[in-house]
Amino acid sequence: MAESFHRYTLSITKDLKARMDRCPEVNWSAIARRAFEKEVDAMESMQQNSKLNQKVLARLRQSKLDAEDNSYKLGLEAGSAWAEESAEFSELQRLGRAETDLEVMLERDDPAWSVSLVLFGDDAERDQILEFWKGETGDEYPSDSFVRGWVEGALKVFRAFEASE
User: Fold this and answer.
1) What is the pLDDT of residues 110-145, one digit of tens each?
2) Both ends of the chain: CA-CA distance in Å?
3) 115/101 Cα distance (integer angstroms)
4) What span, in angstroms and rounded, lies between the C-alpha atoms of 162 and 165?
C-alpha cells in the first residue's frame, strides 16, 4: 500500500533557495523528509530514555535511602555496643555535653571527624581517629548516616545511665 503524504510549507532564506535551484536534480522533499524522520526519531528516543531514566533514578534514589537506612541502623547498634562495652565515662560525658552541637556536627562535611574531636579532643591524631572508626565499622571510614546512628546509639546508653544515677 502506498504511503500517503501531507504537504508541509517551509521557510528558507533567499540565498538557500537560490543555491537549491542550482541543483535541480535533487529531490529536496525526500531530503527534508529524511531529516524530519531522523529528528523525530531522535526526539522520541530521548523521550523514551527520559521515561527510562526517571525509572532508573527513582530506583537508585530508593536504593540510596535503603543503604542510608541500613547504615544508620548499623551505626545505632555499633554506638550502643561501644557505649555498653568499651566507652569510658569521660567519653560519654563529652558526647553528652556536646549533644546540642552534635546536630550541627552531623551536618558538616565530615561528621565522623567532628564526632572524633568531641571524643578525643582537638589534639587527636589522625591515625587514632581512623583506627577508632575502623574498629567501629569493621574496615572502613563510616558514612554520615552510620555516624548519626552511632551517636544516637551511644547517647541512648549514656542517657539511660544518667537516669539510673
Assistant:
1) 889 889 988 888 888 889 999 999 999 887 789 989
2) 92
3) 10
4) 5
Is 116 within 8 Å of 133 (Cβ atoms)?
yes
Residue 73 pLDDT grade (very low, low, confident, very high; cuts 50, 70, 90) = very high
Decide if 72 contacts 149 (C-beta within 8 A). yes
Distance between CA atoms of 135 and 126, rounded to whole angstroms? 14
Residue type, 136: E
Residues with Cβ within 8 Å of 124's Cβ and at least 6 positions away in sequence, in order, are 116, 117
Q: With bands split at pLDDT 50, 70 and 90, how would you rate the model's confidence at 1?
A: low
3-class DSSP state of 143: coil
How far apart CA 87 and CA 51 sit, in angstroms, is: 51
Average pLDDT value over all residues in the chain:
87
